[in-house]
Fold Ribosomal RNA small subunit methyltransferase H.
Amino acid sequence: MSEETPRPPRRKRYSGKNPRRFEDKYKEHDPARYGDTVAKVIASGKTPAGSHIPIMMEECLAALELAAGMTGVDATLGYGGHALRILEKISPGGKLLGLDVDPIEQPKTEARLRAAGYGEDRFEAVRSNYAGISKALASRDIAAVDFVFADLGCSSMQLDDPSRGFSFKTSGPLDMRMNPSRGLSAADWLEKTSVEKLETALVENADEPRAQSLSTALAGGRFQTTSDFARAIREAVRISDEEEMDLTVRRVFQAVRIAVNEEFTALDAFLRALPDCLKSGGRAAILTFHSGEDRRVKQFLKAGVRDGLYSEISEGVVQAGPEERRMNPRSSSAKLRWATRM
Ligand SMILES: C[S@@+](CC[C@H](N)C(=O)[O-])C[C@H]1O[C@@H](n2cnc3c(N)ncnc32)[C@H](O)[C@@H]1O
């Protein structure tokens, strides 16, 4: 927002409670925008492959305390699910920057938002790591914004596309990079990594209880595909309980994905930069999906209060209600925290 723009109307206070049912929240969404994904989820109880249901939408929108005319950042644009609703809330007159590192999905999302009627004056897709949020704002002569939103991790499109190499359910090249033109693929990273480094990644990135035996078996190995890697994990631990086995494979994939994309380094840089990106009274809301992420967000926000950077932060976490968890299992691990800039 430029210097001359009048201050947006007062924010409506957010209680953190949302009594509405999942179906009620989504049934009013325009099917032309969201396709029939929500109907499919409601009918089948799971998210169809290749589609993305934005998580805790109403809770995120409420936490950001949006109003017409605001300028802000969606630091993890993804499929643009949250971005679309944010744009509706800040209309007329608002502006949203949508950051993402993914060169494959971001152009599709940009096209989708343009088709929904948001021109360059209202929405800009920025190919940037959220670690560089300050630079993204400074290069556009934006001193600070009214809100910043982040929905961490991978999108369903990334996870469900076998060619991206994130999934152990459908085999593909073992890649896992959100930006495939940067850094090492997961296959190369595993081949080059030491037992100690892999063990640390398994503990820090996924709280893996069998980190020692898994790292001894897997570090330095060459795995071409996601199914090769999943098989090697299964052989390394030999757990009879199939559910626990699946959870172990899932945790190892998560730990390697976080290492390959240097997700915690980026998250720390983003959280450090955040207070300077927000106007006084500006809001940040961050959705996390596992303990490593949530711990960081919680610590940075609490330290921000101590250091006089935030006047208020969420008390505890806001989580998806039972209906949303049932309809969209990907929401079960989501935790929302928010903060208000002093
Ligand atoms: C969970 S998805 C976001 C989904 C989005 N809220 C929606 O409703 O469609 C997370 C997105 O963040 C992107 N991402 C992950 N790490 C990032 C980083 N360090 N900087 C910028 N984008 C990142 C991923 O590429 C992915 O598209």
Remarks:
- The first strand starts at residue 71 and ends at 74.
- Residues 242-260 form the longest helix (19 residues).
- The domain at 22-157+264-341 is CATH 3.40.50.150 (Rossmann fold).
- The CA atoms of residues 209 and 281 lie 42 Å apart.
